[in-house]
Amino acid sequence: MFTHLSVYKRSFSFGLVAGCVLVFLSLIGFIAIIGQIVFGARFLTMPQYAIMIAICGFLAGLIAISRRQDEAGDWKPVLAIGAFTGLGTGILMILFSLAMDFIRTGGADPRTYLVKLSPQLLELYLFDAHWLIAAGLYLAALIAGGLLAGVFIKAVIQADWRKNLMERGKQQVNQLKTLPVVLKLQANKHANPIMIVVALVLLFLMPYVWGSYWNYVMGTVGIYILLGLGMNIIVGLSGQLVLGYVAFFAIGAYTMGLMTSPVPLGISLGFWPALVASVITAALTGILLGLPILNLRGDYLAIVTLGFGEIIRILIKSDSLTSLTGGPKGLRNIAKPTLFGMNFSSDVNFMHLILVGVLVGIFIAYRLQNSRTGRAWLSIQGDQIVSRATGVNSYFYKILALALGAAFAGVGGAIFASRNQFTGPEDHILMVSINVLCLVIVGGMGSLPGVVLGSFVLKGIPELLRDLTDYRLLVFGILLVVMMIARPEGLWPSGRPRIAEILQNRKIPLDEPSEEVPA
Amino acid sequence: MEQSKKRNLADLNLSKSLRSLFGIVVLALLLWRFYNVLFIEQTYGPDTWARFAITGLIIGGMYALIAIGYTLVYGILFMINFAHGEVMMLGSFAGYFVFELLAIIPAPFAANPEKGFLNALPILSIIIAFLVGMFVSALSGYLLERVAYRPLRTAPRLVPLISAIGASIFLQNAAMLLFGPQRRPYLNPDWLSRGTGWDVLIGGRSVLITYTGVLSIVLSALLMIGLYLLVQYTKLGRSMRAVAEDKQAAALMGIDVNAVISRTFIISGILAGAAGVMWGIHNGMINHYIGFLPGMKAFTAAVMGGIGNIPGAMLGGMTLGILESLGPAMLGIDFQLKDVIAFTILILVLVFRPSGLLGERLSEEKV
User: Fold this and answer.
1) For the whole prediction, is pTM greater than 0.95?
2) Packing angle of the helix pair A191-210, A347-369 (nearest 10 deg)
């Protein structure tokens, strides 16, 4: 009995936390926006809003119940946890409706202080009624949502019929695998190359079909894939956390700008020599930065490189270097590439260039990862002391990783500057580094498909969420936290076996000598 | 052969002799520059120097308060609480709203109630603003730990850092969505309006010592002393130090590790909230972005003083504040570059003395 009591208490306090979240989301108008997307309406009606609140209660209940799974197996406790969570959330919402009532009777426009809280929203939050009625509605909707979550878990997720269905689904997938067509395809050794060629042709046709907007978005994704490949070498393979990655990106972009733009230096080189120059300067910067700081502990390295990135950004923005970098105005008229006298003026051509760049980049990264060098990096990441003891020159390989990662960033920066024909300090803010790091981690550290997937998720999906414009970064922040809690190894983890798994799969524990080896 | 050559090269590059050579060159350059600015060019008179130093001291006090939060959390969880600057920003906003609210409600038992609570009872208003700011920051610090860090207690070290970055982005944008992107003027009581203070004669010219600045310095000093006493002499402080040393052993000694960690975040939040309100009162303008740079610099300060070391964080904060405000003038460079100075100091400290000025205090196993 007492254990149950503590479970209820805890789900109640969990409900309070969920209530804080709900109040906050209401204040920024997030619930209403989501509701508008869900119902496809411009303004939510009151019943629709009530349904949204019930859905919030449902979600809170789901989380609360799944957190207490081992303690609550039966119908009654599960339902009770859901209800208590709803109660906790509801109490917060009662306070919320009281506060809203206070603002409403105050008469002043709440938007002076809370920019999203329009009068319509205020009426919606109070259900256009006395606050006690609104409070009662909130409480009822949330408790109902929590109870529904309990019912859902018992009747759908833990139910027998669902398990049976899953079994049957698995069987059918297995049957599909043994179909004669599939087997034939697997046996045919030409199948793979043909598939790759078809995919490549499709990839090169895509830019014609998409139109310029999607070319722009996909071009950005492509550039971020290049950056991610470099970052993956530094963080994912050699295990050094670098937060100032944007510095190399900026150096690539500015080298491209200074070498080709007619204004500050007047060099007016072509695109290709400038690209090479960008790569070389970026890599050299990587080496120079790496030499003094490589021995630092992981998070110190992160913070030093973060400082370095900020230094570069402040320097290119500052007045004292305006003659060279153009200060806040940046560099204009950066050259576009030409090839055999042909101009890459259209966005389709540029998209092709980025595609080629990405494919070459993936190839290089793949070859590096599966070489002696790649294994050396992995061993340093695993344990630097052990890897040095086995003869890996850890300093050399760490510097190499930094230089190569920086070189990738240099390419990315150069292409970025050339595509926009402009680069300025606002292109090189800390968010770029954070985005790249996040795409590597969200994709799965050390995994090349992960980098590609991560780029699409982090740079592509925000474009799809255009309805959420203001809320994009907010959702991004939430996703990062949720991702780290729910799936820290990334969306597409690298296939590398981890030591814990190897030990688990071994029949014989390490301590005991195996029977095959004579003692 | 090839291999050994490479190894020699790498060892040579990172050898101590080269590093100290680099250090001597940097130091000589700096001294030459100081000499030039101070004695040959004589750009600034002593009054200007005094003004810079005072600014540095005030900012340094705020950095120190925030830095203590970083140091406490790093000492216990070995993670950079990337969102700590945002916690401070939230405290600053709380103080702002308290002032705005107090300005419109009448004072209950004051001599001249028509002036509004804020100006009728200025001291009480300031105290309330600080208390509310500290409370909001403490609450957000606590929630932050509960939501974003506690589930990751056993994860590899990169994972909580990413989560912290996510939380930081979230809080920044949350504040932007709640309060709007525009800068808001902080409404001080008239008694404490910005730009008023005592005039002190230095080198024949008057230097203004603002009331807001004095308030900030005194309050940060008091809070720091209080924190030091708390950590050294109370039961909570003892258990915090024990958890920082060894979580498992502390748990075996009957310490509720999770509660101690929560309280650490609350204490960090209180200090950051005070710093946030000070920031608003002294600098006058706030928006959702004010937490970021002070946060970064306060971390710099914590590293500079030796992470995990509370007096170190105080010293580091003060030093950083003063260096940052004196630095551009000393070196005779653009004042826009003061952030560059802060970050350059960070890099130099980490390269030459990674354990900080006063030495870091972390348990052996994690380092």
Assistant:
1) no
2) 150
Is B1 part of the contact surface with chain A (CB cutoff 8 Å)?
Answer: no
Looking at the domain assignment, is residue B25 inside a domain? no
Digits of tens for pLDDT over chain A (519 positions)?
Answer: 445 667 778 888 888 888 888 888 888 888 888 887 777 777 778 888 888 888 888 888 888 887 776 655 677 778 888 888 888 888 888 888 888 888 888 767 777 778 778 888 888 888 888 888 888 888 898 889 888 888 888 777 777 777 788 888 888 888 887 777 777 777 777 777 788 888 888 888 887 777 778 888 888 899 999 999 999 999 888 888 888 899 999 999 988 888 887 777 777 777 888 889 999 999 999 998 888 777 777 777 887 888 888 888 888 888 777 777 777 777 877 777 777 767 776 778 888 888 889 999 999 999 988 889 988 988 888 888 888 888 888 888 999 999 999 999 999 999 998 888 888 888 888 888 888 888 888 888 888 888 888 888 888 777 766 666 677 778 778 878 888 888 777 777 776 655 566 666 655 555 544 444 444
The pair of structure tokens assigned to B153 is 């207690």
Contacts of B170 in chain A (CB under 8 A): 474, 477-478, 481
Backbone torsion region of residue B186, taken as left when φ is above 0, otherwise alpha when ψ lies between -120 and 50, otherwise beta: beta
DSSP state of A487: -
**What ipTM is given for this predicted complex?**
0.80
The gap between the terminal CA atoms of chain B, to the nearest Å, is 35
Nearest chain B Cα distance for residue A135, angstroms: 22
Domain boundaries defined on chain A: 2-166, 219-503
Q: Is residue B151 part of a domain?
A: yes
- Enter the DSSP assignment of A327: G
Domain that holds residue B133: 46-366
Q: Say if A303 is an interface residue toward chain B (CB within 8 Å).
A: yes
At B181, which CATH number? 1.10.3470
Domain count, chain B: 1
Entry field: residues in chain B: 367
Given CB atoms, is B140 within the 8 Å cutoff of chain A?
no
Put simply, the chain B residues between 204 and 263 with a CB less than 8 A from any chain A CB are none
- Residue B29 belongs to some domain of the structure: no
Residues 29-88 of B with CB under 8 A from A: 79-80
- Tell me whether residues B337 and A314 touch, CB distance under 8 A: yes
Q: Which of B47, B21, B44, B40 lies closest to B327, judged by CA?
A: B44
Within 10 angstroms of residue B291's Cβ, the number of other Cβ atoms is 31
Contacts of A437 (CB under 8 A, 6+ apart): A231, A235, A241, A242, A243, A245, B162, B165
User: Which of chain A's residues have a Cβ under 8 Å away from the Cβ of B14?
Assistant: 291-292, 294-295, 395
Residue B155 lies in a domain: yes
